[in-house]
Amino acid sequence: MKALAARRHDRRAPVVLLLLALLLTGALYAVVAPTSADAAPAAASGDVETGEKLFQANCATCHGPDATGTQDVPSLVGVGAAAVDFQVGTGRMPMQMNGPQAQAKPVQFDEEQIAALAAYVASLGPGPAVPTAEQVDPALGDAASGMALFRTNCAMCHNAVGAGGALSQGKWAPNLWETTPTHLYEAMATGPQSMPVFNDATLTPDEKRDIIAFLDLQGEATPGGIDLGSLGPVSEGLWAWVVGMGLLIGAAVWIGARSS
Questions:
Q1: Secondary structure of the chain: what % helix, strand, coil (to 5)?
Q2: Structure confidence by residue, pLDDT tens digits, 12-66
Q3: Of 50, 62, 74, 134, which has the highest C-beta tally within 10 A?
Q4: Which residues lie across from 173 on neighbouring strands?
Q5: Distance CA 217, CA 226 (A)
Q6: Sign of the C-alpha dihedral, residues 199, 202, 208, 211?
Q7: Quick check: 151 and 143 in contact, CB under 8 A?
Q8: What is d(CA 219, CA 227) in angstroms, rounded to the nearest whole number?
């Protein structure tokens, strides 16, 4: 009995039990875990073939014939269809010239060609897919919640109302008022340029849609009066002090001069 009790209290027993528990947890997760929402849907083989031809003709020079990138150009394996749809759909790719960041310019491909390029890149590895119309519909979002989320996560670069702003080393955060809801969602999901990636663990799809709903209301009306370029409270406060206080001081001097 003493020998049995000693074996039951072996020092290695907790370690063995912990390993068994981890293995069991991993096996259960593999069985019941849902399929990743970021996995790209299967694309038609024709789209992939067309996209590969477009890629080799327009993108392979920089990203390499197998899209694995170089020392100075990122790999496209695993970036997903959303990254291609955003970069090519906003005209940032293909780039016209080197610089601190890719500039938006007139789009060089039509929608079918962009979809084919996205399908080809998505076939190289799973990544964020192009969002559905429901995911980016501002009418289904909560603009008040979006305002709080935007000012917590985005305003430090894009300004409190999405008007954009300067960053370091010649980079900039663009104005978001003219950006389509689909491209806004894709930017949050893929993190282009200096922007961080806001995956579904950071901002849920519903929260992304709320931010889109908030941005959809910006740049159209200024209920508080003249917006002064929407540069923020610092410029507005400076204007109030320089112009407002200047007028008051001038009025006080004028009244004093008239009474003397």
A1: 55, 0, 45
A2: 667 666 777 777 777 766 655 544 444 444 555 569 999 999 999 999 999 999 9
A3: 50
A4: 165
A5: 16
A6: negative
A7: no
A8: 9
